[in-house]
Predict the structure of glucose-6-phosphate isomerase.
Amino acid sequence: MTVATRDAVVTDFSLTTGLSATKRPLRRHVADMADMYADADAARVLAEQGTLVYEFFDMGVPHGSGEVAYGTSITYPGKVGDEYFMTKGHFHEVLETSEIYYCLSGRGLMLMENPEGHVQWEEFTPGTAVYVPARYAHRSINTSPDEPLVTFFAFPGHAGHDYGTIETKGFRKIVVERDGQPAVLDNPRWQEDV
Ligand SMILES: [Fe+2]
């Protein structure tokens, strides 16, 4: 009987910046997600300036059942109006799949909500892991005034990504600065029936 062999995958990334010297990042600018922010006028100005919000690295592991996909995510400090920079956020196509995020540096929040409308959020600080339960859409939010939020993430390879649901409906909550502190408010642009 022959036994199939597979090559190990070796990747590099910095524990402090999250950046890889050998992998190419995927970048998302304000212009890629301007409709997601509550302050449309502020978003338009930053979109025209070409402002970068976040970048992430897919480390190139095969995406299939039995695999563990992983990478790093770097969300830069900044705000659109008073709303902190954030990732687009997504559900997994296979809803019953989870994900682990480990905060390497910076600070922020992981905002999560399930299709039934339960919302929760947890704090990111260096050395903290946030386990996103199955069925929950997830979005990283940088609440630091000056430091990138850097996380390492891993999820089942067959999970897939559903960005469209959040792109059309939004999250039920937004995170804004109030008196110098993050505050979680109802999203005025959230749409229930789309
Ligand atoms: Fe995910």
